[in-house]
Design goal:
The structure is a homodimer. Chain A contains 6 helices and 2 strands, in the order αααββααα. The first copy, chain A, is mainly α. Chain A has 2 domains: about 60 residues, Arc Repressor Mutant, subunit A, CATH 1.10.10.10; about 50 residues, Diphtheria Toxin Repressor, domain 2, CATH 1.10.60. Chain A has a two-stranded antiparallel ribbon with strand order 1-2. Chain A binds a DNA duplex (30 and 30 nucleotides) through helix 2 and helix 3.
Chain lengths: ~130, ~130
Amino acid sequence: MQEIKGKNISSSLEDYLEAIYEIYTQKNGVKAIDISKKLGVGRSSVTEALKTLAQKHLVNYSRYGVLSLTAAGEEAAKNVIERHKTLYNFFKNTLNLDENEAQENACRVEHVLSEKAFQALINFVGNSS
Amino acid sequence: MQEIKGKNISSSLEDYLEAIYEIYTQKNGVKAIDISKKLGVGRSSVTEALKTLAQKHLVNYSRYGVLSLTAAGEEAAKNVIERHKTLYNFFKNTLNLDENEAQENACRVEHVLSEKAFQALINFVGNSS
DNA sequence: ACAAAATGTTCGGCTAACCGTACAATAATT
DNA sequence: AATTATTGTACGGTTAGCCGAACATTTTGT
């Protein structure tokens, strides 16, 4: 009995997925060093995270090989990013925080909101953005 | 160079402070076993946390001794609890989540909101609770 | 194509937070 | 007061996430 569906994913791993997706939309190839810089962690931490994500079938990874998200990984990444954007809008437009504050809080809250809370927030913000 | 002011406190330790304070308001003496039950962690984890909190001068702790919050600890605890209540109200009254959902989300978000975000949320909720 | 630079991996090590077991101390019962 | 139950602690172990240094591989520059 391990994971029921590979659903369990930590805040940290969500950050990695998010970073990979964003780099992927900006450049052609995703490199570990870009992730390292974006997240402010060491290269060796990236390698470790990639291995874990590969085990969970969220990234396609092989030693020294090309890196990409799987379909499931992309879906998960998009999900986190959508949360982030919704939260950012809420903090910025509803609570009137400045951009930095809105970003920082979105980055932290995005990992802890339940699905229901997130949907409720979408409803709420939807009318005011 | 360690802590500048003992300010750094993890989510987990905040949970302990919160629990201690709440038990303290309901019973006369705070016992480790109550904390253990309230947080759903083992007794040995409580001992460990208490030692850490004592090092940070947030609880008065001695081996087998009476347990209490220091002034700083009480302030920190009240701060977390106020965050919790504000968030709970927001989730319940503004986002219309049921009580369980509101509690659970408040429990997780309370540890990650910046001071500014929290103040902005108070402003926002203040008018609608 | 070869040397130099950049990038990726492995390894050992660290910390925080948890656990269970065994033991110590305190509290309760009779 | 002595036994039993409860509670607290010490200890060793686990896991996730991070690090830097040393080494491996790939890429770049000429």
